[in-house]
Amino acid sequence: MDIKVIEQMVEQALKELKTEQTQRFSLSRPENYGIFETMDEAIDASEEAQKKLLHSKLDHRQRYVEAIRSAVLKRENLELISRLSVDETEMGCYEHKLIKNRLAAERTPGTEDLATEAVTGDRGLTLVEYCPFGVIGAITPTTNPTETIINNSISMIAGGNTVVFSPHPRAKRVSQTLVKLLNKELMDAGAPANLITMVEEPSIENTNKLIENPKIRLLVATGGPSIVKKVLSCGKKAVGAGAGNPPVVVDETADIEKAAMDIVAGCSFDNNVPCIAEKEVFAVDSICDHLIHYMKRNGAYEMRDEALIQKLIALVTTEKGGPETSFVGKSAEYILKRLGITVDNSVKVIIMEVPKDHLLVQEELMMPILPIVRVSDVDTAIEYAHEAEHGNRHTAMMHSKNIEKLSKMAKVMETTIFVKNAPSYAGIGVGGEGFTTFTIAGPTGEGLTSARSFCRKRRCVMADVFSIR
Ligand code: NAD
Fold it and tell me: Boundaries of each Aldehyde dehydrogenase domain copy (predicted)?
């Protein structure tokens, strides 16, 4: 073969290779399945996708919602993301992740959430509709990494938005796996590429870029106080879903055996990482021993030795008094083993009696450690519960049959979720009515978020006609 022809062939091959490399992260190549090298690229791709989504029919959006549901509910995917989540973050419990991921896929509302308001009269017809913001920047926690991505993606896409996620760096692999498989399923369902995007290397720096980028029209932060404060002070519209420290009050009228079972079940669910999970108990003196007795019958391990409680605190908290990350979301069995105590996995929570100002009461630890404060009467219990919640106005529980005291606590606490006579998770639709969310926006007031929480209300007026009354 002529040397010139060979040279031309090599040149052509090199050119193609170069083009392929430069296109590897470019917007037009769907094979990235939403993963980009830089935050700007992830946002640009999202903006391009949102322009397409804006003009798609509601029917199509609902089809995309169903595609997300079906991607997550495929057994191999559900098992993969649940397993990866526990392996990578080293938090929570695989069996409970399966339940939470399924819940997010099945019970997050779709486009039906976008109810139109209509006003008609002699001057015509006025509609108020929930419309997209555009590109949303969503920051997600380590504690519910996949649940939040599934839940936010369904809500935001149903609302006509696209979403750029900034997951916690400690959950990057599982978040990427999920984003890729969701985009693949979405594209198979005919959706534009990149409805959901993120960067290859999530970091605080990349989150800052997300917050600052002018193409991001709405920020949604699900996490602790630092990130919620940051998005709320950035000058853009933001939805903040922050920390909690949910107290439980048990009074003398409660069904004590059921209360004990419910509290242990809620507190131990996913090893206590849910922000809604029971974190401390205030029990009226006359039933406190009974409550502890039934808690022990239902999987609680009681610590009575003060020296052991101090050893536990030294193990699971930092010098500043916050949770030691390596113990967040660990099982009671694991924590006890580190203290030289061997139990089997029927032990779900560690309980101890402490005074109300105790560190274990006041700090949100996200571990199955449940301090119990004995109080003289229900009014004191409510007062202490209010103090321990620190004005987060997140979640609280009460076990009682006294409707006046139930009503009093609901009012005093002002929490986004108040659960009566059930485990905390009844508040997100498990064993209680109502839809599911993993972004509970207390500070900014959207409450349990759904598609409409991520939409702008717009008015559309037709003067003089279309009132048919
Ligand atoms: P976290 O605050 O450490 O991290 C949350 C997210 O914010 C992560 O993506 C992290 O990378 C980012 N982040 C944190 N500080 C930042 C900063 N200064 N600048 C930029 N990015 C920052 O929280 P976590 O440990 O992952 O999650 C647990 C916390 O989240 C708990 O306080 C829990 O109560 C809360 N939470 C709340 C809800 C809710 O719906 N209200 C849901 C889940 C978790």
Answer: 37-296, 349-423
